[in-house]
Specification:
Chain A: GO terms for molecular function: oxidoreductase activity. Chain A: This is Cytochrome c554 and c-prime. The complex is a heterodimer. Chain A is about 40% helix and about 10% strand. By secondary structure, chain A is α/β, with parallel strands linked by helices. In chain A, strand 5 and strand 6 form a beta hairpin. Chain A starts with a helix and ends in a 7-residue tail after the last helix. Helices cover about 65% and strands about 5% of the residues of chain B. The longest helix of chain B has 29 residues. A two-stranded antiparallel ribbon of chain B has the order 1-2. Chain B has 8 helices and 2 strands. In chain B, helix 5 runs antiparallel to helix 7. By secondary structure, chain B is mostly helical. Chain B starts with 7 loop residues before the first strand and ends in a 17-residue tail after the last strand. The chains are: A alpha/beta, B mainly alpha.
Chain lengths: ~350, ~230
């Protein structure tokens, strides 16, 4: 019996070592690399990796050697230059789509996406997405060129990520971000996106998601949205909505249907069904939580500040409006009929 | 000229007539373009969505400016705004009931309109009340909400404070529906002069038949002026 237990313990110990071995090697490799590359004084600006920004990326989960496979244990003493993977090795479809555009002649993948900081579309905000574009496209030029033809150009530019119009993505969804009034110390007027720490001050010991997702079921109902929007404690917060493509496309040409506004504004209330609230995370990313279907169409309190002429019209409001307009015909029809029937009384 | 108008009174001066027709044309334009802006997948009367937006904004601007000129004219030039538009105590006590009784009962029996329009008293008590609501509440509010909706970005803080963009857009839409509903009522009442086109002609020429020269006048000054 005793021998049996010893054998068992040995097997279990061996199993744990086998399972933990690859993890520890991978962790060590990453640690080894970052040991030097996260210190700007040691490697210089060009080779510096911001650990805080790199570790939350999906690339970090793959480990350094997946992309830099030629690195040896003797690096950097071996004097060999380290290889870097081609983005298209993994992102073949998006990459070839991009390579066919005029953009590819002017910017490589890494000019827009720092591979040590990049996140998926779900984890970044609209302004974050636009930062890539504004590296080459000056804000003033963007405003000038859009003002020449786009109604409410500044509103469109401030509210939307560029890729909503400047990609060939055919479907989009609504993403709501929590924004808050700027303090005087932050330059006064307007609103800015709330950070995790900002929202923690409101949620105290609870998760920040519970500011809206009160029942904690990882889904936001219309009732929860209304409660958040009507809560007097949150008067400085408001949900700012934007439209982002449902699927990422790297065909950056502008399609004709974006020019005549029909893509968004004539898409009808059916296009407003899918929406999310993007909560900031501690590491500077965003995490989406789904919102009840059609919440964007609620008349007043679902999303009081997300209104797009056309698709967000409220059905209840339409019915009230129709009744009012029909009321305008009561006098001509009702009075007119009686007037016609009693016309002989007025023949003097 | 004097002979031509010897049995007529000059009821609608030129500035009022110009304002009226600019306003009428502007409101119809706003209604059609507004309908396309709200229901773009069903209404495409004005071509592209962008043209509807530009036309709506321009017509809104024209109507708001002409409203301001109308206000300026009656308040500072003729100084008759209060007299014409604000119901007097007597209007509220007895005038409203008397006028309603005429429209909904005695008119059908062939009785005369109790109100006889003059340049100083163009409107009957019901008109005064209706125009007070339209010109002093609805028109300013629909214009103001329109100005807010075309300047969302710079006025964001104020819009959030008053309850949000949807409340503002909803208010703009419902007020617009009220003003649209007024159009058929207004046109219908304008046909209740001595002849169906009498009041409409007055709003074009400015002159209205004097009622004392008319042996049995039917109605008078129902909706012919503002």
């Amino acid at each position: 019996m005793k021998r049996y237990n010893v054998l068992n313990s040995l097997w279990l110990g061996l199993l744990l070592v086998i399972l933990a071995l690859p993890l520890s090697v991978a962790a060590m490799e990453m640690e080894d690399c970052l040991g030097c590359h996260s210190d700007v004084d040691e490697v210089g600006d060009d080779l510096f990796i911001d650990e805080d920004k790199f570790l939350p990326t999906e690339h970090a989960e793959m480990g350094c050697v997946t992309c830099h496979e030629s690195v040896t244990d003797e690096h950097p003493d071996d004097g060999e230059s380290v290889s870097s993977a081609d983005c298209l090795d993994c992102h073949e479809e998006l990459g070839s789509e991009y390579m066919a555009t005029a953009h590819a002649e002017n910017a490589s993948c890494s000019d827009c996406h720092n591979p040590h900081q990049v996140h998926g579309i779900e984890a970044v905000s609209g302004p974050d997405m636009n930062q890539q574009c504004s590296q080459c496209h000056e804000d003033v030029d963007v405003m000038d060129s859009h003002s020449q033809w786009l109604p409410q150009a500044s509103l469109h530019i401030s509210k939307l990520p560029c890729i909503t119009c400047h990609t060939s993505a055919e479907a989009y969804e609504i993403v709501l971000n929590i924004t808050q009034k700027k303090k005087k110390s932050e330059g006064g007027k307007g609103y800015r996106f709330s950070t995790y720490d900002d929202l923690k001050q409101y949620s105290n010991d609870k998760e920040i998601q519970q500011l809206i997702d009160i029942d904690g079921d990882n889904h936001i109902s219309l009732a929860e949205l209304r409660t958040f929007n009507k809560n007097p404690e949150y008067t400085d917060l408001h949900l700012s909505g934007t439209m982002v493509p449902s699927e990422v496309s790297h065909d950056l040409s502008t399609l004709d249907n974006r020019y005549d506004c029909t893509f968004c504004h004539a898409s009808g209330p059916g296009s407003m069904q899918t929406s999310f609230v993007a909560f900031p995370t501690e590491d500077g990313r965003y995490q989406r939580m789904s919102v009840a279907e059609g919440a964007m169409l609620d008349t007043l309190y679902g999303t009081p500040n997300f209104y797009m002429t056309g698709p967000t019209r409220s059905a209840a409001m339409n019915i009230i409006g129709l009744i009012i307009i029909c009321g305008g015909f009561v006098m001509p029809i009702g009075h007119g009929t009686l007037r016609f029937l009693t016309r002989n009384n007025r023949k003097h | 000229m004097a002979e031509e108008h010897q049995h007529q009174i000059y009821l609608q001066p030129i500035p009022v007539r110009i304002w009226h027709w600019i306003n009428a044309f502007g409101i119809v334009t706003l209604a059609v373009s507004g309908a396309q802006i709200r229901f773009p997948e069903y209404i495409t009367l004005l071509g592209s969505y962008k043209s509807a937006i530009y036309l709506h904004n321009t017509a809104g601007f024209v109507v708001a400016i002409s409203f301001s000129l109308w206000f300026f004219y009656y308040t500072f030039v003729t100084r008759t705004m209060a007299n014409l538009y604000v119901p007097k105590v007597e209007d509220l006590k007895t005038g409203l009931v008397k006028q309603a009784k005429f429209y909904f009962l005695t008119y059908f029996l062939g009785w005369d309109n109790p109100h006889h329009p003059t340049p100083d008293s163009k409107f009957n008590p019901m008109q005064k009340s209706a125009y007070l609501a339209i010109m002093f509440v609805m028109m300013p509010l629909v214009s103001l909400s329109g100005i807010f909706l075309t300047n969302v970005d710079p006025l964001r803080g104020l819009i959030v404070m008053i309850g949000g963009l949807k409340l503002l857009a909803g208010l703009h839409f419902l007020l617009a529906c009220c003003l649209i509903a007024f159009i058929p009522t207004h046109i219908y009442l304008a046909t209740m002069g001595r002849t169906p086109t009498d009041h409409i002609k007055t709003m074009w020429t400015g002159w209205e038949e004097e009622e004392e020269h008319d042996e049995k006048p039917e109605t008078g000054g129902v909706t012919s002026g503002h």
